[in-house]
Structure formats: structure tokens, C-alpha cells
């Protein structure tokens, strides 16, 4: 619900009151036209309304929570009844249609067939069966604020392999888009949304882009999320909604590649004593990303049994275990060489501090690199070391298929055979090795 301005305390018979009109979208739930709640504070005891304002604000929050709870409870009950009717209709051998849909279709034969089904199944005496076959439960109504949760239900199978942190990262931009729409327009029912509402959201973003100096892509992400959530929730629940969010993207969006460090800048970072200001795990993840071009999240997610230091060629296996990889090509094995081999020897059990916390790692490292003046531009981040690794491979003319295999990218040609071997990868990695960083010298004993 879009929060209204906190009402000012009103004097009613010498007592300060919270007085509010019931919002239109709750009139069907709360039959009171005007709500009046006493603060129990006498006007004479608080003539300037200092204490009364605090109490009114608390009462107002409680009132809004009450309205929200009524709506959520009603929506949840209606949804459960509707889903039960759908399942029962299927069990009786028919598809579910509401009374309105059956009446609107005008198919007398269909109506008679359903009545005959109730008779033959001897289900006419059961109220739930009658409701299921003859459409006694209306389709659930959803508001804009319901979209992220409903869309997440639709995508449940996709999210099965995601870690908790990955689900959170997947969910947050959807919630943000719906929240922004509610702020820009209102928390309308989906079946009440119009094209004008969607355009108003687009115009809200156009203004925000200018006032907040944001990239056009920021707005287009919100619009895209709203369009996809709206479309999928509509399709899944057979709501028959109009595609109000289609073709609304703003023109002028630019997509540039992420910044990469030069070879000299990468070496400076790897050898910089400033890295020792990081904790051991963060420092060694930086060295692994620089040496092997792994995504920081991939290094953070490595489990102990995926680090095989005793293999004929020491390696790390990037596999979708306890988390989802970015794409199928990301599943791969990389030989451990140089700083990466040394780092994994120091951490044979992986990096538990940052497991499933890649965002925390990136924030920590980027802050340290920025403070040490090791980031040439505002576009450079920890991730830029991965792009620098790819540039080093290209510089020594590594075959495209080998580059794609080590980066975890899709190779744009038909796949034949098993792909590049560990030996072949190790051979090309030997051509782009970084200077070996020595472990920091432990402090001298005070004895």
C-alpha cells in the first residue's frame, strides 16, 4: 500500500484523535467511511500536539497494517479456495471455469455437460464439487505488490538449484520494480491496470533519470521486470490481462563492456603490499581471479572436494553444487598454476567466510583497491581482473575454443569431442602467468 502522509491530530471534544478516511482500495473490507481513534491525550495537557503527534503516527501505522492484513488474509483465502476448486475439477474430469466465464461463453451444451457430470459422478450433494464443476470460486485478484511473490512461484522449478543468496539476488530487482511502480502510480489490482498506468510509470522513470542522473538501462530493467512478471502471472492464472507493459523500453540505452586492467595494472595489484591489508581469504581470492579469470562468485562457492591438489595436474572443478552457475558452459575444470595454486594450497577447504557471499567479498575488495588507488577508473572493479585475464589469453593468440572453455563462455560453433584437455589449458596458462606473489612475512617473535 502506498503510504499516505501521517494525519495531523484532530481535536474532538477536548481529546486528540487520529481521524482518517478509509482508502478507496479498502472500502470493500472496512465499511467505516471515516475512522476515528482516540489518543487518550487531553488537548489541555498537550496543547502543541507534541505527544499527540507521536501517538497518532503509531496509531496510523497500526491502522495501515490492519488494512493490509485484512487484504492479505482475504487474498490468501480466496487463492486457496480457487486452487482447491481447480484440483477438484480436474479430479472430476473437467477443466475449471468460473461462473462468469461459463455464462460469458454462452455454450448451453457445456453447461448441461457439467451438470450431467455432477449427476453421473454423484457429486451434486457435495458443495465443493458443485463449486468446482460450475465455477463457484472466482479467480484470485492480485495487486502490483503481489507480482514478485507470484512470479517467484511460477519460477519455482528454475530456482530449485539456487543458493539462498542467489535467490535473494534474483528476487531483489523484481521487488524493486514493483515497489517503484507502487510509488509512481499506486498498488492497483492487475485487472485494473491500464496502458495509461504503464506509460505513467515510464514517464516517472524519465523524470527520475534526469533528476538522479541515472543510466537509461536502470529504467529499462524495471520496465522489463514488470512486463515479464505481469505476463507470466497472467498466463499462469488465466487472468486475461492486457499486455500493458509491452514495448515501453526507453531508447538510447548504451551497453559497454566492463573495464579491464592492463597487464601492468594487473601485475601491480598482484604484487601490491596493500593486498595484505585484506584478510587472508579475500586476498587469495583476488589472486585466484587474477591468475585464472574465474568469476569471484565461482571462487567463493568452491567446496573442499572440488579442490584437487593431489591430482596429476592440480585442478579446481567449477560445478553447480549448492548453487546455480551462470550458464551450462560455466561448469568446467581449470588447472591450478602460479598464484592460484599457491592460494588454494593455503586454503584447501575453500573460502568459508565468503561462501555464498560474493557481494560481500566484492564490496570488501573494491573498497580496499579504491583506497589503495589501484582502480584506474570508477568502472574498474574486482571483476575487471577476469576481463584482464581474457585479454592476456587473446594477446598470446590462444585458440578461441580454449579461451571460451577457460572463461566458461559458450563457443559459437557446433560442439565436437570433449573439448580442450587440462594439459592443453595448462600449456596456454603457462604463457600468461603473473609474477608469483610471496606469502607475507609473519611478524617477528617478541622473544
UniProtKB/TrEMBL annotation:
Superkingdom of the organism of origin: Bacteria
Pfam family, one: Phage_integrase
Keywords, alphabetical: DNA recombination
Gene source species: Devosia yakushimensis
Name the record gives this protein: Integrase
All residue ranges annotated as the Tyr recombinase domain in the record: 256-429
Family annotation (InterPro entries): DNA_brk_join_enz (IPR011010), Integrase-like_cat_sf (IPR013762), Integrase_catalytic (IPR002104)
